[in-house]
Amino acid sequence: MSDITSQSLFELTSNIKEKKLSSEEITKAFINRAEKSKKLNVYVTDNFEKAIDQSRKFDSNPNLDLKLPGIPIAVKDLFCTNGVRTTAGSKILNNFVPTYESTVTQNLWCQGAILLGKLNCDEFAMGSSNETSFFGYVQNPVGENLVPGGSSGGSSAAVAANLTPVTIGTDTGGSIRQPASFTGTVGLKPTYGSCSRYGIVAFASSLDQAGPMTKNVRDCSMLLEVISSFDQKDSTSIDYKRNHYSKELSKDIKGKKIGIPKEYRVDNMPDEIEQLWKNGISYAKDCGAEIIDISLPHTNYALPTYYIVAPAEASSNLARYDGVKYGFRSPGQNLIEMYEKTRSEGFGDEVKRRIMIGTYVLSSGYYDAYYLKAQKVRQLIKKDFDDAFSKVDAILTPSTPSSAFKIGEKTNDPVSMYLNDIFTVPINLAGLPGISIPAGKDKNNYPLGLQVIGKPFDEQNILNISYALEDKINFKNDISDWWLSE
Amino acid sequence: MSIDLKTVKHISKLARISIDDEKANKLKGDLNNIFEFIEKLNELNTDNVQALTSIAETTLRFRKDEIKSENIREKILKNSPEENKDFFVVPKVVE
Predict the structure, then answer these.
(1) ipTM value of the model?
(2) Fewest CB atoms within 10 Å of the CB: A1, A144, A281, B67?
């Protein structure tokens, strides 16, 4: 049997069911490795002591019919966890201990999973490199001083470094898929309405979705099956029949029509990514898929649209952080001064920047010119996809326009940071499911990902296509454990 | 169109975030860069396009208006920055 922490979720679950491993052995193995991996800075808060207690409890009376029997899992620190500090990577929630549980994490615990701890992320999920976190940057296990992507950077690093078997992140404009691409892991953003947003610290409510981040496609299907559910507590949760994603997983994609959008061939895209895409296309052909050239004419307008819509929603959502009911408070002479000081000291620069953009585009005299305009362009972007999906079953693109970059390389130029999400943002604007799978490496040996985009509620199809491609690509991450301490 | 220092200060007032002059100047530069990038949308004619208001094409559900959780006062007050029995405490508002 291979080392416990390098096993996939599928292997760990099988080993528990066949009584080859106990939950306590597995939990302790991940905790041991975490103790030696502090340099990566993936944890904001650990739950190790309680996790060991819970694993013993599981072992004393194991329910092996569950989908995640005694499996320890760390989650992004954007999910509210009852009794365990939840910070959203922000000083303003530094001391916040929720008295309720998010639906998505509750779904994990109901299937037997055990909380290992809370993973670092960009502050309020606003960032593409995990550098906006109040709790410091995260190292990408792929190489020293590389960013792990963001905003779910602690999550992607934790999966790639074998610090959790799988994890869940959130994706508003690419925050699951881009970090997955940067770390050689798999990340799926489900259709809007598939996973409940209840108990997730809100960033942009019309775009936010939770989703699985895993070592491989099969694990991804297993985890999606657990977290996707209809929930009365989220008014935009959609009541539809969800697949048994792991049971129905199949490499048979013969006859599937896969679209290749010409607009995703952007200026200055490295040759390696162009080549990666070509390889993906030929693998899809080898699997019997039919390749069809398509056009998504408004692709170039997606990022500007996103940088109106997302900050607008964020400025409204973050109005609740006023130092009155919970979180950090900075005292003031009067109520207004207290609000202004609390928010000035409690939020980091990127969050303030986005609140300011959002406040501006929603302010009197500018609403029509910016917000309304963006909502109209969003309609055009969605229509592009509707038209494309009348001809194809799925769309294949690169996940990101580059591989992971160095820590500090883009922090002084917000726009260049935003450009990271050029291939992922349109999918959130259109509410579609998208998955990033590792597909190759660049000249520095850094991973690169391919993205498969599906029709609404067609997660099974993009999982199957990814499963078939994964088999052909046969990606190996070979991470050297350079960060381990004794 | 460019955003001047006065506008930056006005937005910060609306957003209830106090900023000093140095920060305001830095923000002015950042916001202008970002808005220059956003202005690209003006290339598109959207006169006859209906704004997208909901990405999930469902009508919002109705439900009975009933109390589902009781006695949660303590839970709600648990994270309040200043404790004073059953209330959230703020600086004096009425002079």
Answers:
(1) 0.95
(2) B67
